[in-house]
Write a structure and sequence with these properties.
single chain, mainly alpha, three-stranded mixed sheet, two-stranded antiparallel ribbon, 7% strand
């Protein structure tokens, strides 16, 4: 029975489990199985069944390939107790190899990973992913990249080093998406501006109401106090008919007098009160304009 480690991590460096072919990559040798390669890849299937020179050879060189990358894709196609992960570090070279060898299932896994990742990556990387998608005809990644590119400004789009490599139909779709996004943002700004203006108008009405009431109260207080002060001998408030005239009358009340309204005590003059009320009136008129 195979050990857990054998199932999880094939070594490939030595013959194992009836391996019958060796892939030679960068002077490294990978002992693998024709049937496994043929099952995953129509390219290898033709290589081992048609009139190719590799059909009867025990060693198959893969020039131009990297040993580390070939090992990664082999680990994907061989059974494992845990599924091998597609990551940001390996997804691009794995997809390129899978595309070359027509390993559709691995292409799909890599594309799904990249399409999901592009949604959370910086918007500036969207065009590089789009060009990659164009090259390998990856519709799902293309759609995700184009959608992400809607977030770019027109200057960011034009100045990107990948701009000249974007296919015309994709470029048109991106620019239309950017224009629609800008229109939505403009509409949103207009709505927000209108809501703010309505709020300001409501506050202005409210402020005017408060101002009117407070000024009226100041006038009534001044009138009441003038009435109180008028009990003094020789004090007159003749011709007082508005807040300003009542405050002016109070300003002249500088002498104390014996209060006859409830208490036998001496009341100070009300000129100081007039000063306070005048200050309140001035602030109301200044900070709550009509």
């Amino acid at each position: 029975m195979a050990s857990k480690s054998e199932v999880e991590s094939p070594d490939f460096s030595q013959p194992w489990k009836l391996s019958d072919v060796v892939l030679v990559v960068e002077e490294e040798r990978f002992h693998v199985h024709r049937a496994m390669l043929a099952f995953w890849s129509p390219v290898f299937e033709k290589m081992f069944t048609s009139k190719f020179q590799e059909k009867d050879k025990n060693e198959v060189p893969l020039p131009g390939k990297k040993a580390r990358e070939i090992r990664q894709i082999l680990l994907l196609i061989y059974p494992s107790l845990t599924e091998r992960e597609i990551t940001e570090e390996n997804c691009y070279f794995l997809l390129k190899l899978a595309h070359e060898y027509q390993m559709a299932a691995i292409v799909t896994r890599c594309e799904d990973f990249m399409a999901n990742k592009v949604k959370v990556k910086a918007k500036e990387s969207a065009l590089a992913d789009l060009v990659f998608a164009q090259t390998y005809k990856l519709e799902k990644l293309k759609l995700a990249s184009v959608t992400q590119a809607y977030c770019l400004s027109l200057d960011e789009l034009k100045n990107d080093e990948m701009f000249d490599q974007i296919q015309p139909n994709n470029l048109q779709e991106i620019m239309e998406g950017i224009v629609k996004r800008l229109q939505r943002e403009l509409d949103g700004a207009r709505t927000q501006s209108q809501e703010r203006q309505e709020k300001i108008d409501r506050m202005r009405v409210s402020n005017q109401s408060v101002k009117t009431k407070c000024l009226s109260d100041v006038g009534r207080i001044a009138e009441t106090l003038v009435g109180h002060a008028s009990s003094k001998q020789n004090y007159s408030y003749v011709c007082c008919n508005d807040t300003a005239s009542y405050l002016a009358a109070l300003q002249m009340d500088t002498k104390p007098h014996n209060c006859s309204k409830g208490y036998n005590s001496v009341c100070s003059g009300l000129s100081v009160v007039s000063t306070y009320l005048s200050s309140i009136k001035q602030q109301l008129e200044q900070f709550l304009p009509s």
